[in-house]
Amino acid sequence: AQKITQTQPGMFVQEKEAVTLDCTYDTSDQSYGLFWYKQPSSGEMIFLIYQGSYDEQNATEGRYSLNFQKARKSANLVISASQLGDSAMYFCAMRVLNTGNQFYFGTGTSLTVIP
Amino acid sequence: EAQVTQNPRYLITVTGKKLTVTCSQNMNHEYMSWYRQDPGLGLRQIYYSMNVEVTDKGDVPEGYKVSRKEKRNFPLILESPSPNQTSLYFCASSLQVYGEAFFGQGTRLTVV
């Protein structure tokens, strides 16, 4: 079975500090992709970062980096230098090649940045 | 502009009254899918489609129908809505095998 687990329902971080949002995944497939999305209070889903299962380097996109530990099946999102606009819900997702390329989402982590 | 367009954005309806939420994408994506988002449950897939005339059930398909007659459109049909289908619905599209999902703006549905 394919599953994404986000164990932190809510997180707080001080402005300008770094924060790590946890994500673990479960799949027996060798080919998969891992994604992070941001959902601000306005509701839209914003793609942040992608990591392929065969990528050896951790993905980075500006202030976002994905800490990919394949053996531990974890794909944590690191946000550096937090800003007030980072306050949002964050979803981890996985796309698995051999299950019809379906996407599987976690339950999300609500991040609040404190001034 | 590349986008996924859902309509309507907000809908209040009564139990049993058939409704359709439309979804259209202009990126020539083969893969389209529908999700519902509920507090504490994240996004759960309702149906997905890998191409025209190819659809399959996701995790929570009961009470929903879809069709994919054209590549760009993937409507979600609730033939007899019930209050437990009150939720935030998202349509998404992506390339067939790789790449991220592009989401529509969401449809907030209330069934009374």
Keywords:
heterodimer; A: 115 residues; mainly beta; four-stranded antiparallel β-sheet; 12 strands; globular; B: 112 residues; seven-stranded mixed β-sheet; 11 strands
Account of the protein in words:
The complex is a heterodimer of chains A (115) and B (112). Chain A has 115 residues and is mainly β. Chain A is 0% helix and 53% strand. In chain A, a hairpin with a 4-residue loop joins β8 (64-69) and β9 (74-79). Chain A is globular, with a radius of gyration of 14 Å. The mean pLDDT of chain B is 95. With 112 residues, chain B is mainly beta. Chain B has strands spanning 4-7, 10-13, 19-25, 31-38, 42-51, 54-57, 65-66, 76-78, 87-94, 102-103, 107-111. At the A-B interface, β5, β10 and β11 of A face β4, β5, β9 and β10 of B.
Number of separate strands of chain A: 12
Overall geometric form of chain B: globular
Rg from Cα of chain B: 13 Å
Mean pLDDT of chain B: 95
Report Rg of chain A: 14 Å
* Assembly state of the chains shown: heterodimer
Tally the helices of chain A: 0
Overall SS class of chain A: mainly beta
Instruction: Note poorly predicted spans of chain B.
Output: none
Low-confidence segments of chain A: none
